[in-house]
Amino acid sequence: MLQLAAVHHIAIICSNYEVSKRFYTEVLGFSVLGEYYRTERQSYKLDLALNGQYLIELFSFPNPPKRPSRPESAGLRHLAFAVTDLDSAIAHLTEKGVVTEPVRIDETSGRRFTFFADPDDLPLELYEM
């Protein structure tokens, strides 16, 4: 049987590197572990951590195709981040100019959550723990 230990990282390809870098670091609060420019690919790779844990690789490539995200499409649906205070997280995003959807209640757990989007319209979720 395969013994997975953990999720190592999530890779995201963005259309505007500087805009996405600012969003993930200044709006969401990720810290930069490493930033690399790969000349042969004309591509940046930005390693990002959350609370010291390596989590996201942010890539730029010349002219990446758009990701179909709405209506629902096959593949990765969204990334969800746990928060302890959904209201203050929403207030922070609103202060930074990020629009969130109305808060919903998870029918299974009874917990509150909301969705918002990154600069490339990748669906992101805040889930109150």
UniProtKB/TrEMBL annotation:
- Coiled-coil residues: none
Which N-terminal stretch is annotated as signal sequence?
Answer: none
Task: Give the molecular function GO annotations.
Answer: metal ion binding
Which keywords, in A-to-Z order, does the entry hold?
Metal-binding
CDD domains recorded: VOC_Bs_YwkD_like (cd08352)
Q: What is this protein called?
A: VOC family protein
Which residue ranges does the record assign to the VOC domain? 6-129
Matching NCBIfam families: PRK11478.1
